[in-house]
């Protein structure tokens, strides 16, 4: 499943586009072609769900739905739902996403497309989609329609009958908001058609998609609202405990994520049905799944509801092998990457290794100790994924420019370089390592500094906005990556065709 290969980390919002945010249109297909030319076989994306407060793809309104902001508007022109002249684009910045204006403008365009869609009988493909995805789509569409009706307020602040899902109140809402519900179904149909078409194209070019499942759902989500009994909530829908992590590399007060925590005993009682459906849905969207905060299945940091920071929490046991045995029993082998960063209990590694899930190694973490550091490539097992950095890290150049001189000196001596081209030095180190998979953020390929950082943990705003410009995706970068993949054996060759060494003969 995880043959030696390489790939690029890039979220679709970072693609060029004339519409203020990257989307699933022609620039995404061009990027796939560029990846193939660079001999890359993996494209890793962040969660693709509809984003809420802070625009974070890790705080989505649904664990199943897609983000309408990623919809390619030119496809809607081709379908006849909008006219080309409707796309009078405001002067959005090209190098970043200005989410507020983009959201308002794009929602208006999608509403125009839906109005045209309404003028004829819905196509069979739409009807089939609504029927096939009804297990999550009906609750999601109603949830979003109710949020619209309540001015975007979180569901615990709604009318109590709607907050508590009184059956009669929900029936009246479905009738009252029927058109708005169809609008949200329409957006999901378009998103899924566009994303699955792009995925098919990537697969045809020999590129697999690595997706991302956050272990937790957002507090203000259709999942928390519709599956309330599966979470630790009080009678008014407020979480009694929330998720986070203790003080770590990123924050001295820890990270207070605020996500509601699962009642694992109740989930176990119904055979983890919601999780099985979640994995099943994501395995349609992706070829491989990276599970964010994998350690939460072993033990998790539980913080009292209403706490100001994550400092005063405690470790609580997760579902461990019982969970994975049940899910694998239902779905078969899971193509998972375990995000096992931080300082996990040794039991986390034992759980990971029991199922053969590859863990993660991040090169930026390797230089603060000594030659025994587990993030140094000579200490890697083969069954792992090496990254120069992740979406939560600074770019490699930005990191190096800010790192303590002791770490910078260690890097230079380890690599026998002077540090003037540190991003590509680290890319080379990742690709030449024994790790089966090597993933590089596109920003590092472009040798960009901290201005291109995607996310700063614990910073509530200003994240997820970076975009690249078309002329930055050069043939020189493509050729450099292709050469390294050839040099370091990251181009797939069937075993029977591999040239054997003289020693093997």
Give a written overview of the molecule.
- By secondary structure, this protein is α/β, with parallel strands linked by helices.
- 38% of the residues lie in helices and 11% in strands.
- It contains 18 helices and twelve strands.
- An eight-stranded parallel sheet has the order 9-6-3-2-1-12-11-10. Strands 5-4-7-8 form a four-stranded antiparallel sheet, with no helix packed on it.
- Strand 1 (5-9), helix 1 and strand 2 (42-44) form a beta-alpha-beta unit.
- Helix 4 (124-132) packs across helix 5 and helix 5 crosses helix 8 (178-204).
- The protein is globular and about 70 Å long.
Q: Are there runs of 5+ residues with pLDDT below 50, and where?
A: 501-505
Q: Helix amount, in percent?
A: 25-40%
Structural class: alpha/beta
Distance between the termini: 28 Å
Number of strands: 12
Shape: globular
Question: Secondary-structure map with pairings?
Answer:
Blueprint: E1 5-9, H1 26-37, E2 42-44, H2 73-78, H3 99-117, H4 124-132, H5 134-149, H6 160-163, H7 167-176, H8 178-204, E3 208-214, H9 222-226, E4 241-245, E5 255-260, H10 264-269, H11 273-285, E6 288-292, E7 299-304, E8 314-317, H12 320-331, E9 336-338, H13 346-354, E10 359-362, E11 384-387, H14 396-402, H15 405-415, H16 422-432, E12 437-441, H17 442-445, H18 475-487
Parallel strand pairs: 1-2, 1-12, 2-3, 3-6, 6-9, 10-11, 11-12
Antiparallel strand pairs: 4-5, 4-7, 7-8
Helix pairs in contact: 4-5, 5-8
């Amino acid at each position: 499943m995880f043959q030696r290969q390489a790939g690029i980390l890039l979220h679709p919002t970072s693609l060029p586009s004339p519409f203020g945010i990257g989307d699933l249109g022609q620039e995404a297909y061009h990027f796939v072609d560029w990846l193939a030319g660079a001999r890359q076989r993996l494209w890793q994306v962040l969660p693709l769900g509809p984003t809420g407060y802070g625009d974070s793809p890790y705080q989505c309104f649904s664990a199943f739905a897609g983000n309408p902001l990623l919809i390619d508007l030119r496809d809607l022109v081709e379908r006849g739902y909008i006219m080309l002249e409707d796309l009078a684009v405001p002067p959005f910045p090209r190098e970043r996403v200005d989410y507020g204006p983009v959201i308002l403008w794009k929602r208006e365009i999608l509403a125009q497309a839906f109005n045209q869609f309404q003028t004829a009988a819905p196509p069979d493909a739409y009807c089939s989609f609504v029927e096939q995805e009804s297990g999550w789509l009906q609750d999601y569409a109603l949830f979003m329609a109710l949020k619209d009706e309540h001015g975007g307020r979180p569901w615990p602040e709604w009318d109590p009958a709607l907050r508590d899902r009184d059956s009669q109140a929900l029936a009246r809402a479905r009738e009252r908001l029927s058109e708005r519900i169809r609008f949200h179904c329409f957006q999901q149909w378009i998103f899924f058609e566009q994303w699955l078409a792009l995925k098919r194209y990537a697969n045809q070019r020999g590129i697999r998609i690595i997706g991302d499942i956050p272990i937790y759902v957002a507090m203000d989500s259709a999942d928390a609202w519709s599956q309330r009994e599966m979470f630790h909530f009080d009678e008014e829908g407020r979480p009694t405990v929330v998720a986070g992590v203790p003080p770590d590399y990123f924050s001295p007060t820890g990270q207070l994520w605020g996500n509601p925590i699962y009642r694992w005993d109740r989930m176990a009682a119904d055979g983890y049905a919601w999780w099985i459906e979640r994995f099943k849905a994501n395995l349609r969207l992706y070829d491989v799944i990276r599970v964010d905060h994998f350690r939460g299945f072993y033990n998790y940091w539980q913080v009292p509801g209403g706490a100001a920071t994550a400092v005063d929490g405690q470790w609580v046991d997760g579902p461990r092998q019982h969970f994975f045995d049940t899910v694998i029993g239902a779905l078969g082998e899971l193509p998972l990457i375990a995000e096992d960063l931080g300082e996990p209990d040794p039991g986390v590694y034992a759980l990971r290794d029991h199922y053969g899930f590859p863990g993660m190694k991040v090169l930026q973490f390797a230089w603060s100790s000594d030659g025994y550091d587990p993030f140094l490539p000579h200490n890697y097992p083969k069954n792992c994924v090496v990254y120069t950095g992740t979406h939560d890290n600074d770019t490699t150049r930005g990191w190096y420019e800010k790192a303590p001189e002791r770490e910078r000196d260690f890097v230079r001596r380890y690599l026998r370089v002077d540090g003037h081209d540190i991003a590509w030095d680290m890319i080379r180190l990742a690709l030449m390592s024994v790790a089966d998979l090597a993933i590089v953020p596109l920003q590092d390929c472009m040798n960009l500094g901290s201005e291109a950082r995607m996310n700063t943990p614990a910073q509530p705003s200003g994240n997820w906005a970076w975009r690249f410009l078309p002329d930055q995706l050069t043939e020189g970068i493509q050729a450099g990556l292709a050469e390294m993949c050839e040099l370091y054996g990251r181009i797939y060759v069937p075993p029977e065709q591999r040239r054997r060494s003289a020693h093997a003969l």
